[in-house]
């Protein structure tokens, strides 16, 4: 993977980035888009795929955060997520990610309004089809070196970023379930390494507990849309 630019140490919220982005060049070119946070084992109901002729339940509470570590805006049209079992539908046209800005991907069966009720506003949310419903299966709640590898693919199908995460040391534990895992400050350029990730905890790097509602009924913890950088 190419070297990624060194980042100034600060916490970027989406509100602050909105103003900062105005001063940045509004160009579309290649940049370093990385997977920065993964909610793979929420406490809230995740749904399950169809099996043995029995209908499944749609996934609504998983999510994946992306972050643009580069200096240019990236057109994410046609990008998608994949794992060992398959891939999601495509990010629709017109979705662009500004430099040093986060974006959160959620299953299409989850509404943006419901997600915002749980996690707040001020950051971009994109819904992906075929997440746990015939494309990319639900992310494994018991990941291992052979299962789970989460990939971000570009419009040509090439791998932009990949994280082969686990729930055993040196990876952060997922027991008890509920918190996401996220990349530690200064480690965005090493997000393929176990030591670069931590388990989300309320009050640490702006992580919080989701507000409980229709689809988020248990204590999920994370910081979607907020990335701690060097």
Q: Count the DSSP helices.
A: 2
- Low-confidence spans: 1-30
Mean pLDDT over all positions: 85
Proportion of strand residues: 25-35%
Largest beta-sheet characterization? 6 strands, mixed
Going across the major beta sheet, what is the strand order?
A: 9-8-3-2-12-13
- Structural class, judged by helices and strands? mainly beta
Computed over alpha carbons, the radius of gyration is: 16 Å
Shape: globular
Determine the oligomeric state from the structure: single chain
**What is the tally of beta strands?**
16
Order of SSEs: EHEEEEEEEHEEEEEEEE
Query: End-to-end span in angstroms?
Result: 19 Å
Helix content: under 10%
Question: What's a quick, concise take on this entry?
Answer:
Helix content is 7%, strand content 27%. The chain is mainly β. Helix 2 links the parallel strand 8 and strand 9 (124-128).
Helix-strand blueprint:
Blueprint: E1 10-12, H1 14-20, E2 33-39, E3 63-68, E4 74-75, E5 80-83, E6 86-87, E7 96-97, E8 102-107, H2 112-119, E9 124-128, E10 149-153, E11 159-164, E12 181-183, E13 197-199, E14 208-209, E15 221-222, E16 227-229
Parallel strand pairs: 8-9
Antiparallel strand pairs: 1-16, 2-3, 2-12, 3-8, 4-7, 5-6, 5-10, 10-11, 12-13, 14-15
Defining key terms:
230 residues, disordered N terminus, mainly beta, 7% helix, six-stranded mixed sheet, four-stranded antiparallel sheet
């Amino acid at each position: 993977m190419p070297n990624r630019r060194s980042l100034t140490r600060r916490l970027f919220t989406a509100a602050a980035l909105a103003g900062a982005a105005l001063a940045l060049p509004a160009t579309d070119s290649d940049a370093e888009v990385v997977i920065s946070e993964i909610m793979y084992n929420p406490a809230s109901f995740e749904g399950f795929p169809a099996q043995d002729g029995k209908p499944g339940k749609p996934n609504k509470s998983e999510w994946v955060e992306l972050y643009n570590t580069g200096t240019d805006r990236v057109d994410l049209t046609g990008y998608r997520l994949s794992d060992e079992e398959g891939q999601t539908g495509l990010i629709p046209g017109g979705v662009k990610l500004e430099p040093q800005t986060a974006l959160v991907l959620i299953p299409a069966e989850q509404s943006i309004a419901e997600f915002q009720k749980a996690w707040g506003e001020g950051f971009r949310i994109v819904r992906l089809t075929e997440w746990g419903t015939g494309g990319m299966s639900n992310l494994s709640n018991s990941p291992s070196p052979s299962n789970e590898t989460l990939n971000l693919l570009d419009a040509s199908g090439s791998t932009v970023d990949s994280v082969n995460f686990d729930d055993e040391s040196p990876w952060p534990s997922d027991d008890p379930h509920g918190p996401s895992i996220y990349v530690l400050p200064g480690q965005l350029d090493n997000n393929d390494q176990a030591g670069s990730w931590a388990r989300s905890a309320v009050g640490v790097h702006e992580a919080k507990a989701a507000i409980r509602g229709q689809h988020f009924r248990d204590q999920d913890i994370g910081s979607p849309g907020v990335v701690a950088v060097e």
